[in-house]
Design brief:
Blueprint lengths: L6 H15 L6 H17 L8 H12 L6 H11 L8 H8 L5 H13 L2 H7 L5 H16 L6 H18 L5 H13 L5 H11 L2 H10 L5 H13 L6 H15 L4 H11 L3 H13 L4 H11 L5 H11 L5 H9 L6 H13 L6 H7 L1
Helix pairs in contact: 1-2, 2-4, 3-4, 3-5, 4-6, 5-6, 6-8, 7-8, 7-9, 8-9, 8-10, 9-10, 10-11, 10-12, 11-12, 12-14, 13-14, 14-16, 15-16, 16-18, 17-18, 18-20, 20-21
Length: 363
């Protein structure tokens, strides 16, 4: 039958066959290869507009019913909800994704809700499932952050549709939902976000406090800074390292002028590895020259010991730039072998040919 069909029909039949066979594919590699093929077929079938609505639903149903929602499942759902006809079955797709608790699935759920606009998002605020309410709050944040693309009247109407439900969610029994609602209202111009986050922090467990510390990075930097300082100054207790790490991640995201110096301090001096890793990640991800030059100063002016030099060289090597390359080249000759090895490995990521002999010696 397929052999007798015209090319366009054969493409349609092949796509349908891949979707229908998804559950029978033996492993992750087979499903990944099937997705590759499906994407290739889509490029050949732009005229027909992609998968049908039932095929979109079937692919998402198969991916969300897997034992684990891994990278292949995430890719399949991402592919499916981007299809033009996904809008025809958006409600069904929302229900399928709402059954998954993995962060990747929740993020896709937020995107799916946001694609339906303010009304769909607002309707989800009252859903009995915390995961769906949280995804709706995140979707609302996405809509608010993109409101500059709307004309003023549309933006005002969108805000009026979202704001009442978000206000209710700030008192949600699920702390993660409440945190996201507070952040979104801050984006809308409400000025008491830090105060509200502090209230959630005070009554929350350790997990909630960690999420609050991270969310502080999305608040106005000057308003959030005293709260960051308070969190970092609290006595160490069970999970205290994780809390400090979360505060440092938020601090890096905030872009506060004092953040770089404090992050370098924790990178060098905190005894908890998770805290040092959080400081390193925050420094490596910061934009601009301030982090780069703060790390160089700590290396060249502070006379750190070998262990601290290794940390500084490792983080500095994650930042692009000719100045970084020049500094790292000098540390290829560091008297401590660990420092020299780290410098060589990071320089290799910068595609510096001079590191080849050093890399050979490491191997």
């Amino acid at each position: 039958m397929m052999a007798d069909a015209d090319p366009e029909t054969r493409v349609l039949m092949l796509k349908a066959a891949i979707v229908h066979a998804w559950d029978d594919l033996e492993d992750e590699d087979a499903r990944s290869a099937a997705l590759d093929r499906l994407e290739d077929l889509q490029r050949l079938d732009e005229k027909n507009g992609g998968l049908s609505a039932p095929e979109v639903k079937q692919l998402v149903a198969a991916a969300t019913s897997a034992m684990a929602f891994g990278a292949v499942e995430e890719r399949a759902v991402t592919f499916a909800i981007a299809e033009p006809r996904a809008a025809e079955v958006r409600g069904d797709l929302v229900e399928l994704l709402a059954n998954r608790s993995e962060p990747a699935a929740r993020e896709l759920l937020s995107k799916l809700l946001a694609s339906g606009g303010a009304t769909d998002v607002a309707n989800a605020f009252s859903d009995p499932r915390p995961g769906l309410r949280g995804a709706a709050a995140r979707a609302a944040q996405s809509l608010v952050e993109q409101s500059h693309r709307l004309d003023p009247a549309e933006a005002k109407a969108q805000e009026a549709r979202l704001k009442p439900g978000l206000e209710v969610l700030t008192a949600d029994d699920d702390a993660l939902v409440a945190i996201r609602a507070v952040v979104t209202l801050e984006r809308m111009g409400r000025a008491d976000g830090v105060e509200r986050l502090e209230a959630i922090y005070r009554r929350g467990d350790e997990g909630t406090r960690i999420r609050v510390a991270e969310a502080l990075g999305e608040m106005p930097p000057e308003e959030a800074w005293p709260f960051f300082s308070l969190i970092l100054a609290e006595p160490t207790r069970t999970g205290g390292g994780l809390l400090r790490a979360a505060a440092l991640r938020g601090m890096g995201l905030s872009g506060h002028p004092k953040a770089v110096g404090l992050l370098v301090c924790y990178l060098l001096n905190d005894e908890n590895r998770s805290v040092r890793v959080a400081a390193a990640d925050a420094l490596a991800e910061m934009e601009g020259d301030e982090a780069r030059f703060a790390l160089i100063r700590a290396l060249t002016e502070g006379q750190p010991d070998a262990e601290r030099r290794a940390r500084l060289v490792d983080v500095l090597g994650r930042i692009p730039g000719d100045t970084v390359t020049e500094v790292l080249l000098a540390y290829l000759e560091d008297k401590d072998r660990t420092v020299a090895d780290i410098a060589a490995l990071r320089l290799a990521e910068h595609n510096v040919a001079a590191t080849v002999p050093y890399l050979i010696s490491i191997v």
